[in-house]
Design brief:
By secondary structure, this protein is α+β, with helices and mostly antiparallel strands. It has two domains: 3-228, Rossmann fold (3-Layer(aba) Sandwich), CATH 3.40.50; 241-383, Nucleic acid-binding proteins (OB fold (Dihydrolipoamide Acetyltransferase, E2P)), CATH 2.40.50. Helix content is 24%, strand content 33%. It is built from eleven helices and 22 strands. Strands 6-7-8-3-9-10 form a six-stranded mixed β-sheet, sandwiched between helices. A five-stranded mixed barrel has the order 11-12-13-21-15. Helix 6 (171-188) links the parallel strand 7 (159-163) and strand 8. Helix 3 (97-107) crosses helix 4, helix 3 runs parallel beside helix 5 (141-153) and helix 4 (112-125) packs across helix 5. The longest helix has 18 residues, at 171-188. The chain is globular and about 80 Å long. The protein starts with a helix and ends in a 10-residue tail after the last strand.
């Protein structure tokens, strides 16, 4: 199989500037045929500009976009094999559901009988049989979402572009629609390109996720790769909840580094080589990231399963899992996602620990002193200045 046959979408050194601002910075990536590809990033990172260039609404200042192996240079939006689903859906209230779905077919000159049959078949495929004669205002938010997707998919596009389509839905409906979208994409096999600032949407829905920042992709990978093996401090801080501890590397233990804060708190973490090819060395400014769910909470040393020793001493000795001490600042109850917010005793830095679902620490009190630990191999550490280069930088990828 040729390379062009593998990728439904390829961006090659794509560039877009608005005055002095570079919205998309020489970006190159590929999206495999039949995959669900999400572009995740904060507001202003360039993801909407990128999506609108793919759709043809904005012309790039440099580079090229290929869809289905064909360059889109000079191809108008209505001539591209793409369709787009917007956050506001843009359904026509004066038309029935069936007429909405068949609208694009009518614009293409498809006969009435054929387009009505295709619209009804598509509505059945998205779980709305018998809805063709209804008005759009008779449908729930989730049903309207499916109508918008059906209207796009009935045209059999190579790519379906989705611009934060779940943003206007309430939380419970959004959670349900995430599952439905994933199932629809798998059933149709159409390539989805989805942009969002919501990391939960990106992680749940996608085969591959590109984390975008300042016009470039910080990392492209599977949701698991982004979560467990972030390539940059930005990805570590943006994807999932993380405790961020800044300091300097005070010691190395093979693949682990001790990061000491200005107040003297020592945190041990796995050394990561950043996308700029640098890794922490002794004396370098560094940032450690520890996810709340990897930390273990206890009232006594025995609760942690560690040797009896004072907090902090274990780090100096080089123990596998150093022990730390904190004071409960607040309890954050959220069912299975409940956590406790601590203040580490020495530095007074905030540290969040996920509470076990057994309810074991449901009786914790504010100002109570507790102990906590975590396996250093499950934390990551990046250099934030200086550092020893070990390889070249990367600013793009293929998903």
């Amino acid at each position: 199989m040729t390379r062009d046959a593998v990728f439904d979408l390829e961006a090659k050194s794509l560039l877009k500037r608005f005055g002095a601002h570079t919205a998309v910075d020489t970006l190159s990536f590929g999206v495999k045929r039949g995959s669900f590809f999400s572009i995740l990033g904060p507001s202003g990172c360039g993801k909407t500009t990128l999506l609108r260039m793919i759709a043809g609404f904005i012309q790039p200042d440099g580079g090229d976009i290929e869809i289905g192996g064909r360059s889109m240079r000079g191809v108008a939006p209505n001539r591209r094999p793409v369709n787009m689903v917007f956050q506001q859906l843009a359904l026509f209230p004066m038309m029935s559901v069936g007429e909405n779905v068949a609208y694009g077919l009518a614009r293409r000159g498809v006969g009435r009988a054929e387009r009505e049959a295709k619209a009804q078949a598509m509505l059945e495929r998205v779980g709305l049989p018998g809805a063709a004669g209804k008005r759009t205002d008779e449908l729930s938010g989730g049903q309207r979402q499916r109508v918008a997707i059906a209207r796009s998919l009935v045209l059999e596009p190579t790519l379906l572009l989705l611009d934060e389509p779940l943003g206007a839905l309430d939380l419970k409906l959004r959670e349900r629609m995430k599952i439905e979208l994933k199932q629809l994409q798998a059933a149709f096999g159409t390539t989805f390109v989805y942009i969002t600032h919501d990391q939960s949407e990106a992680l749940v829905l996608s085969d591959q996720v590109a984390v975008m920042n300042a016009g470039r992709f910080e990392q492209v990978g599977s949701p698991q790769e982004l979560y467990y093996a972030p390539a940059t401090p930005f990805v570590a801080g943006f994807v999932g909840a993380n405790n961020r501890i800044e300091g300097r590397v005070s010691a190395l233990h093979g693949a682990l580094a001790d990061v000491t804060t200005p107040e003297g708190w020592v945190v041990r973490a796995q050394i990561q080589t950043g996308s700029d090819g640098r890794r922490p060395g002794v004396g370098d400014a560094a940032t450690a990231f520890v996810r709340p769910e990897v930390a273990l909470l206890g009232r006594t040393v025995a609760d942690l399963g560690l040797p009896a020793t004072a907090p902090g001493d274990s780090a100096a000795r080089g123990d596998a899992a150093p022990m730390h001490e904190g004071v409960v600042e607040s309890l954050l109850f959220d069912g299975a996602n409940s956590a406790v917010l601590l203040r580490e005793t020495r530095s007074r830095a905030e540290f969040r620990v996920a509470l076990p679902q057994t309810g074991r620490y449901a009786d914790l009190k504010v100002d109570e002193r507790v102990l906590f630990t975590f396996a250093p191999e499950r934390a990551v550490c990046f250099v934030t200045g200086g550092g020893a280069p070990v390889g070249g930088a990367t600013g793009s990828g293929h998903g």
